Amino acid sequence: MIKAPYLLFIGDATDKLSIKMAQGAVDWSPDQCLGELSVAGCTVTTGLPQISIAQAARMGAKSFVLGFANSGGVLDAKWHDVIKQALEQGLDIVSGLHEKLTDIDSLSQLASNLGRQLIDIRHPQQSFKTGTGEKRSGKRLLTVGTDCSVGKMYTSLALEKEMQAQQLDADFRATGQCGILIKGMGVAIDCVVSDFISGATESLSPDNTSEHWDIIEGQGSLSHPAFAGVSLGLLHGSQPDAIVVCHALNRSHMRGLPNSQFPSIADTINLNLQAAKLTNPNVYVAGIAINTSSVTIDKGQEICRAISQEFNLACTDPLRDGVASIVNHLHRAPTKAITANTDSAIANRSELAAMVKRA
């Protein structure tokens, strides 16, 4: 349904993470992106050239993508006129917000009159069954996180790219609006009724050949008070053989919750392994992916080496250093849950925390 190329609208965004919809498209499907459009007050950019709606239409743009996100996923009324301009220039509108474009009468009527599409990619059109937990053929990897927005989608896409480069049979399975825009298919799990989250995930990753890997994009975190329910349903429905733990350096609390406590990597591993064993008792940790963008490349690599040594797992920054080391661990024996009960583990963790703090 989504026609390329795109004009990416980022509005007056001031937070780089708030334009992850647009940035993800630029980073992973650049050939489909013509440019970006922002307005006064915007302090971030995807790096694409600024193009007006009229210019984009003349250049052959087919879709006007709302490339921003906000708390609650609502569309500010101030953007209605901009969207109408895009419709009048012959572009379809693509949104990943919770609020549906098709529920806004003025936009819906204009789109209908002009024969244009309003595409709410966050809202599944199909019906789902409840999960069964029954064993499916094929292999599955799920990215999980210490928090939201720590790089689960980027890590998943990097894993797909590396696995395919190594001639492995692997496909990315999108579970969020950004991933759906990039791949053109998937299910936005956070918009599925809670009873059907695991069943929807099962349908997203059905039976496959024995050597095929589905790389399933993770959502939220089991430690996030707001989104743990989505994370748990996705974990059970994914029935992962392997998980990759994603983490971002220098966070002190869960995203959007300044009074919350941030979980350790060890706690995140244990929580996910324990929960994942409900549908796959043999699940193991294949590696740890760290977003080190808040420190220098050298410091990031030093921290990854320390984490790798502490947990005896491959640890890397997917964007800076690639994920080959994680892919190379996909066929090893299952990993036992990692605990922090030994004096040596506690000492290592304290030393690592001090290193991150110095960074």
Automatic annotation (TrEMBL):
This is DUF1611 domain-containing protein. Pfam families: DUF1611 (PF07755), DUF1611_N (PF17396). Coiled coil: none annotated. Residues 39-124 form the D-glutamate N-acetyltransferase-like N-terminal domain. The lineage of its organism: Bacteria, Pseudomonadati, Pseudomonadota, Gammaproteobacteria, Alteromonadales. Residues 130-327 form the D-glutamate N-acetyltransferase-like C-terminal domain. InterPro entries: DgcN-like (IPR011669), DgcN-like_C (IPR035086), DgcN-like_N (IPR035402), P-loop_NTPase (IPR027417). It comes from the Bacteria.
